Amino acid sequence: MKRYLVILCALCSLGVQAQTMRWNQKFQTYIDQYKDLAIEEMLRYKIPASITLAQGLFESGAGKSQLVIKGNNHFGIKCHGWKGRTVYFDDDASQECFRAYSNSLESFEDHSKFLVNNKRYSRLFSLDPTDYKGWAHGLKEAGYATNPQYAQKLIGLIELYKLYDLDRAKSYDRFIANSNGRKTYQQLHPIHIYNKNYFMQARPGDTFKSIGEEIGISGRKIARYNERDYRDKLENNEIVWLKKKQKKADEAYKNRPHVVKEGESMYSIAQYYGIRLKSLYKMNRLEPDYQLKVGDKLRVR
User: Fold this and answer.
1) Euclidean distance between CA atoms 65 and 100, whole angstroms
2) Which strand (E) or helix (H) includes residue 172?
3) 145 φ, ψ to 5°?
4) Are 259 and 219 within 8 A, CB to CB?
5) pLDDT digits (tens, 9 = 90+) for 187-207
6) Where would I find the beta strands (DSSP E) of 77-205?
7) pLDDT digits (tens, 9 = 90+) for 61-75
């Protein structure tokens, strides 16, 4: 009877932990940054994108661990015959050997090959591609991690952030997958998703040229997407859109006008919502020489 109660309490504890997991912006940013890379790996190796992302989130603390910062290792994979660069950290034992990579793409790719080429994970590939729970429990049973709650942790992350939706993807954004995968973690600006577009926030010293070099496209194109001159200086935290902006704001703003605040301009408002400046003027039937006033209400969709 006592043993039954102990087991029951342990199961209840896992359930409560999964239920009390809270949404975290850092985790969402990591997902936005690497979801296309996870989908690319899924389409090549048949590993659910939800599982890849959940493992990356959990193993790397959403990309903030020292193992990522010093070794671009998102999945906590130890050396085990590895012939490449290595880093050492305390884990189950002191100063254990971990694989190190040149960039995130190498880490995601090696994670896929590690699972595909290791016989103890072979049965997982017979599961339905959308069976993230089966994958989570299978990874734990096969010894991927020593944490007794590993499967529940992965499932909790997948369900909280609805990562299971990615397991049905048939395509991915190659631009984002390549730009995030081929640069080292330390070099990357976090990339966010909004209004069917991608954006990052400028850091001190950033230029359209430097941002273009980081993500692998022309800085002049990025300047055009943001309706700016290529030589313009970027302010700290300024929004920089990475694709051509939409004509309207997100659907959530269908019946919600923007109320102009002190210091705002038509351009800053257009950037905030990820819409083209010309479209903002057109929606509100305003001429380019209109003098914006605090309290004005503007349609953004």
Assistant:
1) 13
2) none
3) -140, 155
4) no
5) 578 888 899 999 999 999 999
6) 86-89, 96-99, 192-194, 197-201
7) 999 999 999 999 999
